[in-house]
Fold each of these.
Amino acid sequence: MRALNAASGWRANVPGMSQHAKGTRQHTIGAPLRGRGILAEREHDPYRDRGKPPEPSACPDCGVVFHDGRWQWLTAPPEAHPQMCPACRRVRDRFPAGFVTLEGEFFHAHRGEVMNLVHSHARHVREEHPLQRLMEVEDRQDGSCVVTTTDPHLARGLGEAIRHAWRGDLAFHYEQGQTLLRVHWRR
Ligand SMILES: [Zn+2]
């Protein structure tokens, strides 16, 4: 919603996006989700566009607290209304907002280092942005890896952090009114 709109200028600055956006493997990523209709077009993020929860609310799964109009890592007051946060709902529904595909010979040879960066970057982001989390890391038979996230910003940030560290080819492809981002990095 608000953050996504503010970031709508991002796409113009992404070199190579259109060149790589139509990756041949897109239909294979997030395989467990196929057949549930979740890849249908959606104009809005169904996890963020709902009405705001009462304050204070606390997520029974992760403990994040809705306060001052946003989800924050706070200690939940005893009277907090239990309400699952958007990130935990996405995890429960297995409905990622970001897919980061990592592939190539370099990735294959340096997988450990790259994945360390993925996890450390995600930990850092999660502290500042409680709804931006890793969901799953799926290793595929061809040696590539797909990381899913609860928020497109995290997917983008992961791709940029990896490119910053090791260069390589990075591409972004937004879908569904920019509520879903597919990131491909290859080196
Ligand atoms: Zn939660």
Note: Residues 57-84 form one domain.
Amino acid sequence: MTFRTSRRLLAPVIAGAVAGAVAAAGLILPNRIRQADAGPDESRARNVILINGDGMAAAQREAARLHLVGLDGQLTMDELPVSGQLTTSPNDPKTPVTDSAAAATAWATGERTYNGAISVDVDGNPLPTLGARAKAAGRATGLVTTAQVTDASPAAFFANTANRSAQDEIARQYLEVTRPDVILGGGEDWWLPAGVAGAYPDRPAEDRAEASRGTKGDLITEAKARGYQYVSTADQLQAAKGGRLLGLFANEELFQPRREGAGGRYDPPASLATMTAKALSALSTNSKGFFLLIEEEGIDGFAHVNDGAGMLQALGELDRAVAVARDYAATHPDTLVVVTGDHECGGLTIEDTGTADESGDGPFPIKGSSLTFTLDWTTSGHTGVDVPVTAYGPLAERFTGKHPNTHVHDVLARILTR
Ligand SMILES: [Zn+2]
């Protein structure tokens, strides 16, 4: 209460000080009517970077903070100045808990739908996506993920299909319908027909089930014909030039989630931060601005197998990518950065090491401390708890408070569709 009162009292003083400083510097003030109309930041916003920690809610973020930066530290994603909460429920007759497809559809279209839906409504009708609408408004678009590039979260922004497993159809729509300028991640298996191995061999030792399985022809060849530069290694990615870029760095995900001790590993051939930097340099050449979706899938992937060590590694990679995005936005004030998760995964909590119950994953050291913590998992599936959202840049303040996940769409659309 005291805090709120003092904030109200301070507000006019700060506003007056800023106006005075602007006047003293001899700067021309922007048109006040237009500014009032659009809100203080809206007219200068052009770019949006939306960052999805798949499966990331408050416990995942806090475990990463303790383990990676310590009791007095702060993750970059938590340093973004505005924070709020999002609910994640789908509109599904069978379950109150969302999957990544329904959650990303809420972000991309503003509509809650059933699990498995890729930007279609509850009757299966296609919905306009932010990816397509941003493109129609003249913006460059892109997606970067450690999942398959055609996995549910990116797919909902750039495709419409009643079933998230139709990943070859999603790839086809990328090339022939929505044309994101930058596509970086995994999932080569859906871009090539059975029998055409591509850069990543079929049935590798680490997962015998991985093999090319597309039914839409050789989409990599089609991508090249449509002007994409195609790369399959981190070195090629580093050397790539030009605006249209397709990079596929694995048959499926860029990591192998397995139960701890059963060969799980997180070592993407191209890191999320590297892909993010490359995407930003390609997309930022568009004078009308851009939309970039960034996703770290390893948080969800390792949470599903209750592997805290793998999950913490993925969270660290996500935070490095957030730093790249935040640094870009710091020098490009027309850029909104939003960091959230599509849903929680694992029913995770953080416990004292002495607690002798249940899963007891750990102990994990707290950085800069002799203390440790244990992770306790209650499920190998998703849960319905809220996810934190943090934001920086124009319109960031709209994420204050608690909103349904469709709110992400409503804020982003104000920038991307005008
Ligand atoms: Zn999941």
Note: The chain has one domain: 62-416.
